[in-house]
Amino acid sequence: MKILVVGGAGYIGAHMVKWLARAGHEVIVLDNLSTGHRDAARYGSLVEGDLADEWLLDSLFKDNQFDAVMHFAAFSLVGESMVDPGKYYRNNVAATLNLLDAMVRHGVRHFVFSSTAATFGSPQSERITEAHPQQPINPYGQSKLMVERLLEDYDRAHGLKSTCLRYFNAAGADPEGELGESHNPETHLIPLVLQVASGRRDRISVFGDDYDTPDGSCIRDYIHVQDLCDAHLKALDWMRLSERSGRFNLGNGKGFSVFEVIDSVRRVTEHSIPYEVTDRRRGDPARLVADAAFAQEVLGWQTKYSDVDTMVAHAWWWEKNSIVI
Ligand code: UFG
Question: Is the dihedral of CA 189, 191, 197, 199 positive or negative?
Answer without folding.
Answer: negative
